[in-house]
Structures are given as structure tokens and as C-alpha cells.
Amino acid sequence: MTPDEIVEAHGVRLRPFRPEDVADIVDGCADPLAQRFISGLPSPYTEVDACWWIDTAAPAVWTGGGAAYAVADPTTDRLLGTVGLSNPVPDRRQAEIGYWVRPAARGRGVAAGATRALSEHAFAAGTVRLELLTHAENTPSQRVALAAGFRHEGARRSAGAHRDGGRHDLLSWVRLAEDPPGPVARLLPDLPDGVLTDQVVALRRLAPDDADVMYRLHSRPEVVANQAPPVPPAREAIERRCRLAESAWLTGQIARLLIIDVATGEVAGSCGLSYTEVSSGEGSIGYALLPDWRGRGYATRAVRLLAGWAFGPAGMARLTAGTVPENTASHRVLERVGFQREALQRGRLPGLAGARLDDLTFALLPDELR
């Protein structure tokens, strides 16, 4: 790869930076989203910074063994964003790939196209491993990684720096030269049209703005009593759960949803689905309702909807639900959906002050779903 070459693929053009790109670079780098997730950018970002990037910084990236491309519209040649390689490790034939896109160009597949184009170009030049790092809350970038063929590999602890000097984890996404082309299949796909509904209740993904209702629900004594261990959650933990809900979904950890009353739009409760064993296709389900919505069959409807999605788009072959033996109301919900009592595992769960709790497990197979 050389600084003066042009790469055209996947709907974008990768080319050298030019003086006429200054205004568009400022437009992209001064944007609040870029400023939030690219902590190394000057703040505020000005034309002086853009000129320094074109004249000094981008050439230095090439000199250091990396790559720095302008991402341009193939028709107009106007700058849409940037993509590049950094932190090269020549003896391992690996590098880190990164990008940003101007606000007006987002949502058009520009970032994914640029990432795919540069990845393929780098692999053709001898690179064998590319790493893409994202902030845990930067879910648009995580979707780009998946669309560009990068697989979630884990978290790099304290790999990112805040502007105030603090540290945060970064999620690592990796693509190898021998990986198949195209998007990565997800364990937990998106909901169809973003919702599951039977026209009485609806399930939608948990979002950052749901912290108030989630804290109100999961700090209730009767809900806490059916958790293991039965300890009320901290407000900060609930807020973090809501902020990271989409990321947890994208990485295949857990699908967290709110249960909504369709008629009023009010939140009735929450539920969740996760894989317990990917190799065997087994998943686990959980749920909780606010007091005003209990006794109306809403939990049964929610579990039925979630189980249908689990056996369908999510591709699971078996579902389990663990309960404390005393939670008879939850047992009735599961049995109405078709779950069968399967095992009492004594002392399986942590209680308070070193005590242990029994776990009564229910299980459901696809042909048993009522």
C-alpha cells in the first residue's frame, strides 16, 4: 500500500487527502458523536487541525507503516469520512483499523463499505489480522464491525482513555484474512421491525432512557427476593445495564427487553433471553412485572412471544428458566407457556451471608410451546 494509490470498492473511493477536504474534515471531527468516541481529537476541532492532519499527521501515519485514506463518494469525489490503519505490528502482520463518517453521510453503509474495502486491500498486501476497537456504548460502530465481517473477540480492559484522564474498556472485533466475506451472523438477531407483539403486549429492546422504570421494577422487595443473590441493585448498575443493552445484544451476551402494554404504551415489566450453551442451542429466559400489571396474563404473553422468537430467528433448540422453589406465581406462568419442571438443584444459587438457595429448573422444547 502507498499513500498515492486509489482504492474503489463496496460503494466508496479511498484516496489521498486534499486541501479541499478541510471543511468536510472539520464537519466530521467537530461532530459531538466523533468527539465523544474519538478521545484523541482536538476539542474544539478547527480548520487549523484539519490542515495539520492533511499536511503532517496523515503522511506520518504512512511513514510509520500505517495507512490514512479519505473516504470519498465515487461520483462526486467529495469526502464522506476517513478510514485507516494504525498500530502496525509487522512481524505479526497485523494492524488496527479505524474510521469516522460525516454526519450527513451516516446510515448509508459508508463506514462498512470503507472498512471492507481497506480490509481487503490490506489482506491483499500481506496483512493477516485486523483488529477494530469500539467503545462499549458506540453501538453504530459495533454494527459497522459486524457488517464488515469482524467478529467480537472480547474486551480490552482500560484500553481507552477519557478526555478527563480516566480509563475505560474497549470491545475488540477481529477479522482474519481467511475469514469468509460478508457480514458476521449474530447469535441474537434484531427483532423484526424492532418489536415482538401479540397486539396486547409488545417487547422492545431496553434503551438508555429506561433506567428509571428498570430501577423501580428491580428494586422492589418481591422482585429482589426472587433473585440470586437477593440483593437490591445499585442505581448506577441499572443505568449501566440500560446503556449497554444494545451492545450486549450485538455481542450475543443477552437480549434485554421491556414488556409494554400496547393499549397505553406503559411499561409493564422486563424480560431477557441469553444463550447458556451455544454449541447445544440452549438458552435461558427470565422476566419480572410491576405490581399494577400482575394477574392479567402479561407475563405469560411476554414469555410466549420471547420463546417463539428464541426458537425462530434466534435459532435456539431448548429453553430453560430457573426459579426459586417458593415462586409459585412464576411457576404457573412457565407451565401455561408449556415449560415442564425438570430438576431441583439443591444449593445451586448464592444467597445472603454465605447461604445457598435451591434452583427449580423448568425447560421447554419447540414442539411444547403453547
TrEMBL record:
Residues 12-177, 201-363 form the N-acetyltransferase domain. InterPro entries: Acyl_CoA_acyltransferase, GNAT_dom, Ribosomal_N-acetyltransferase. It comes from the Bacteria. PANTHER family: ACETYLTRANSFERASE, RIBOSOMAL-PROTEIN-SERINE ACETYLTRANSFERASE. This is RimJ/RimL family protein N-acetyltransferase.
